[in-house]
Amino acid sequence: MITLQHYLLLSAALFSLGVFGVLTRKNAVNVLMGIELILNSANINLIAFSRYSSHGLDGQMFAVFVIVVAAAEVAVALAIVLTMYRLLKTVSLDRADTLRR
Amino acid sequence: MSVFDIVFCIVALVTIGSAAIVVLSRSLIYSAFALLFTFFGVAIVYVMLGADFLAATQVLVYVGGILILLLFGVMLTHRLYNLNLKTETFQLIPGLLIALAVFTSLALAATQTHWKRVEKPVAATTETIGKLFMEEYLLPFEIASILLLVALIGAAMLVRRRSDA
Lengths: 101, 165
Fold this sequence. Notes:
The complex is a heterodimer. Helix content of chain A is 75%, strand content 0%. By secondary structure, chain A is an all-alpha fold. The N and C termini of chain A lie far apart (59 Å). Chain B is mostly helical. Chain B has helices at 3-24, 28-48, 52-76, 92-112, 126-134, 138-159. In chain B, helix 1 runs antiparallel to helix 2. Chain B is globular. At the A-B interface, helix 1, helix 2 and helix 3 of A face helix 1, helix 2, helix 3, helix 4 and helix 5 of B.
């Protein structure tokens, strides 16, 4: 019988995988993929709690706004990554250590 | 085990497995395509939770928008003749420790807490969500639209080629 706990465990696994990706990847685009995993796991939590609570659809509304913010975030982040690539000729995060040149 | 449980196990395995490929694969292209399966898996989980509108939004925005943007990011930040899009890793041990600690604490919190659960029937959500957007959530809705506009203009400003540079 699948209940709330199973969804929470799935989302915990996704979240920690995302954290692992963010912490260990050098490529900026790959770090963004980790952030997307984290946002997805948060959404699973929101919708699971919305499913098993008496509060109508509030959790799902929150999840919609999380998706909107994720779309805005990835657009701006990719713009920053492209600018960084143009300036430094690399997207490796350990070589982006100057404020201006 | 019912059919529902078996389907959930398969979907969870596919989602977590492809998420592991996303963070472990050496090739950026493999990571991006594994992310596709993760997003679809999460969409199926939404369906199993009775969130039909969210599942459609997930497929449209994540698969149709964010994944394509990430692929653009992969392609634009590498020279085209350099086809082995490899990525390096660092801080493997601390990263692994922190991820394991996060997972353990989250899993303990999820399993040890006594959640108060309400069993309610699954119903179509699109109409309710539309009404909520236009009534209770009107202000956040408008703010979100302004946020999207700002992000659009900001992204275009960031990547434009300056003529004076």
